[in-house]
Structures are given as structure tokens and as C-alpha cells.
């Protein structure tokens, strides 16, 4: 069952929650709606389900307009963040509930219900808790039961709203892998709402990034991660260092005079918005692992003097966890006499722990930080 979302608009009073949202989801796809709190993810999910009416636009399932179709008739299964299991019913009865509620004509026999429930409990690897009550289960187990219950009525579409949001980090990780495997077995078209970028990247076939009621970007996790379409997407997908400067003809100079000469720059060139020769304000985005860290002496005299390719910065704090070392550095001015906006900026770098130990880096020493790769966004006047 494919889903087509056409020109969906939604206000709550004067608040514009969804702004002309268009999205196509292929049959059997697992799509993550990713965005910050309040961006409209849940509202979109509720509109797809039929729990909320849009002001304008329509939802289609495999081309069929669902506007006049009641939520009960849409064939949608839900799993929400807060376990919605019935406390007074056993796990078995919770999963059987949807089947027992079917109209008499469609209702399976008792033997069929028993077989189907046990099949689903085996699928979520919890057949051994069939006789327990929800209060006797862990949070992760309850969410797996909630999923089994949603699947019992063989939904055409599965909607998951932060299903693992209330669970601790380790259980979340286990469950997202488990959900991915389960989806690969069942191929039910699924939409998964999360504000956790790691979760979206790990679980989904396709990630749809939403900001303030609009889709900012959609693509495979790889596409969105490697080619973020806007500063918002770049910043939302992970830790990032931001350097202000000016760009001209595919080159960039930071405000403090550093040239980013040796840096691989992903930036719009003339023809993609920038005019030949035009000087534009620009922001260079650099991920912590895209920064090289060295001692000034190793960089040569030019860099040590501050006029070269790297950025002089003092190592303020080093946090070594597992195989990685996270370094917090304070940028120093390249031209100390001039007004310099970047001096004092916090720079986060990530290097292998082994390198950190081999270099014998010490907090308080001055280092040279060089971006290997930067993604540059230009300011065409709209502001960035
Ligand atoms: N019934 C409602 N009445 C008024 N405002 C609402 C209603 N439902 C949602 N909103 C507002 O619409 C915006 C989008 O809400 P929504 O729940 O879709 O966000 P979300 O992206 O799912 O956020 P979260 O991750 O925090 O759940 C929010 O600003 C919210 O306050």
C-alpha cells in the first residue's frame, strides 16, 4: 500500500502547523519523519491516520482518496510512545483485542485467534509472556507487545509515533535494530516519527526532515547526511562547527583571515545561485570528525604564525570514551590586533583515541585545527 500526501495544510487557531506538505511513500517502505519538537510530525501522522482533519489537501492510499474514510476503516495500525496496553488484560488478550472487536462476519474463530496471537508473539519474541499482565513487563517488552497488537489486524499501514521515546538508550538501540529486522520480514508500509537523528538514520529507508511545518529535505539516510540541503538539516543531523566568512568563486576566507585553502569545500558555485565574481557572506559547516588536529610546529612556520590554513586553538578539555577522543578547543585570533569575531569560539574536534594518546596531547596547549572538508552555505540576502 503506497501513501500519497498532497498539499496538506493545517492550522491550530492562528498557528500554522503544516504548510503545503507533499510526500510520496512507496509500498513496503519504512520512512522516518525527523524534526525538532513542535515541527508538526505527530500532526502529520494523525492526519494520515484520520485522527485529525487537514484544512486543505488530501491523503491517498494506493491512489484512493482517504478523506471520506473513517479512521477505523483506513486499515492503519498505531504504536505510540506511551504504552497503550490495557492494564487489566493479559498480554494474550491485549494482542487478541483487535481481532475480537471485528464485526461478527469478519471475526476469526477462537482457534484462529489463538494461532494468530501466538504467531505474533513469536514474531516479537515474546510468546513466553502470553499469560502475564502489562505491569509484569519491562518498558521495551511492552512496546513490542504494542507492536504485536497493532499488527494483529493486518494493517495496510503502520504508524509509529516515537515508539521508543520513553525507553533508556540501550533498550532503544536494541529495539530499533529489532524493528528494522521485523520490517524487513513483513514489509508493511511504515511511518516512524522521531526527533532522534541517529534513530532515523539507523532504522529508515528514507528520512524526511521537517522544520516548522515544512519538509526541508527527504532522501536516503546517506543522501541526507552527505548532502544536507540547508543549514538547518546540517545542524540538526549532528554536532557541527560553524565558521563565518566570505565566499567568492568557489573559495572561502574565514572572518579571521584563515583561507580554508587545503579544505575540500562542498559549496554552490556560479550558476547555482552565485554570480561570477560575487562576494557573499558564507557559513562553513564542519563536523567534529572532519577536523585534523596537529601541533603548530608540525604545520610549518606559516601556520604557526597564524596566517596559514589551520586555525590556532587552545585545547580546553579532552574527553576520551571508547575508541574516540572528543576535544573542546577555544579558537585564537589569527590577527590579534583586528576586531575578530571568531576568537574565543568553541571548536569541537573528534580524533581516534589512539592518536590522542600517541600525540600525548595535554589540556592547555595550543594546537592547529584544519578542516579536511566543509559544507558551505551562501547568503543570498535572505540571511543564514
Ligand atoms: N490540538 C492542538 N491544538 C493546538 N495546537 C496544537 C494541537 N496539536 C498540536 N499543536 C501544535 O502544533 C505544533 C506541532 O505539534 P506536533 O505534535 O505535530 O509536533 P511534533 O513535531 O510531533 O513535536 P513532538 O516531537 O514534541 O511531539 C506544536 O506547536 C503544537 O503545540
Automatic annotation (TrEMBL):
PROSITE patterns: ABC_TRANSPORTER_1, ABC_TRANSPORTER_2. This is Sulfate ABC transporter ATP-binding protein. InterPro entries: AAA+_ATPase (IPR003593), ABC_SmlMolc_Importer (IPR050093), ABC_transporter-like_ATP-bd (IPR003439), ABC_transporter-like_CS (IPR017871), CysA_C (IPR041193), P-loop_NTPase (IPR027417), Sulph_transpt1 (IPR005666), TOBE-like (IPR024765). Gene3D superfamilies: P-loop containing nucleotide triphosphate hydrolases. PANTHER family: SPERMIDINE/PUTRESCINE IMPORT ATP-BINDING PROTEIN POTA, SPERMIDINE_PUTRESCINE IMPORT ATP-BINDING PROTEIN POTA. Residues 3-237 form the ABC transporter domain. One of its GO terms (molecular function) is ATP binding. The keyword Nucleotidyltransferase does not apply. The keyword rRNA processing does not apply. Keywords: ATP-binding, Cell membrane, Membrane, Nucleotide-binding, Sulfate transport, Translocase, Transport.
Amino acid at each position: 500500500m503506497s501513501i500519497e500526501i498532497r498539499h496538506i495544510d493545517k492550522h491550530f487557531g492562528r498557528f500554522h502547523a503544516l504548510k503545503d506538505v507533499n510526500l510520496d511513500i512507496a509500498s513496503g517502505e519504512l520512512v522516518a519523519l525527523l524534526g525538532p519538537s513542535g515541527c508538526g510530525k505527530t500532526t502529520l501522522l494523525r492526519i494520515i491516520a484520520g485522527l485529525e482533519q487537514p484544512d486543505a489537501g488530501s491523503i491517498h492510499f494506493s491512489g484512493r482518496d482517504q478523506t471520506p474514510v473513517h479512521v477505523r476503516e483506513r486499515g492503519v495500525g498505531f504504536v505510540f510512545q506511551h504504552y497503550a496496553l490495557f492494564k487489566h488484560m493479559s498480554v494474550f488478550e491485549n494482542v487478541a483485542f483487535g481481532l475480537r472487536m471485528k464485526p461478527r462476519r469478519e471475526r476469526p474463530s477462537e482457534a484462529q485467534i489463538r494461532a494468530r496471537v501466538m504467531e505474533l508473539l513469536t514474531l516479537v519474541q515474546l510468546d513466553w509472556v502470553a499469560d502475564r499482565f502489562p505491569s509484569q513487563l519491562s518498558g521495551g517488552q511492552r512496546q513490542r507487545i504494542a507492536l504485536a497488537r497493532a499488527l494483529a489486524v493486518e494493517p495496510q499501514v503502520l504508524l509509529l509515533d516515537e515508539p521508543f521515546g520513553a525507553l533508556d538508550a540501550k533498550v532503544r538501540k536494541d529495539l530499533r535494530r529489532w524493528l528494522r529486522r521485523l520490517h524487513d520480514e513483513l514489509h508493511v508500509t511504515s511511518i516512524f516519527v522521531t526527533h532522534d537523528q541517529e534513530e532515523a538514520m539507523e532504522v529508515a529507508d528514507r528520512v524526511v526532515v521537517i522544520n516548522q511545518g515544512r519538509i526541508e529535505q527527504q532522501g536516503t539516510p546517506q543522501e541526507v547526511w552527505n548532502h544536507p540541503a540547508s543549514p538547518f538539516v546540517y545542524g540538526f543531523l549532528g554536532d557541527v562547527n560553524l565558521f563565518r566568512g566570505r565566499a567568492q568563486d568557489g573559495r572561502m576566507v574565514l572572518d579571521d583571515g584563515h583561507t580554508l585553502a587545503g579544505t575540500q569545500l562542498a559549496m554552490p558555485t556560479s550558476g547555482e545561485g552565485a554570480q561570477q565574481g560575487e562576494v557573499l557572506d558564507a557559513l562553513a559547516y564542519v563536523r567534529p570528525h572532519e577536523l585534523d588536529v596537529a601541533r603548530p610546529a608540525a604545520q610549518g612556520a606559516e601556520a604557526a604564525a597564524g596566517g596559514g590554513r589551520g586555525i590556532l586553538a587552545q585545547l580546553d578539555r579532552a574527553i576520551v570514551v571508547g575508541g574516540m577522543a572528543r576535544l573542546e578547543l577555544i579558537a585564537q585570533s589569527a590577527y590579534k590586533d583586528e576586531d575578530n569575531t571568531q576568537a574565543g569560539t568553541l571548536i569541537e574536534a573528534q580524533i581516534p583515541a589512539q592518536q590522542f594518546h600517541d600525540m600525548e596531547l595535554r589540556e592547555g596547549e595550543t594546537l592547529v585545527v584544519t578542516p579536511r572538508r566543509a559544507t558551505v552555505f551562501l547568503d543570498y540576502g535572505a540571511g543564514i
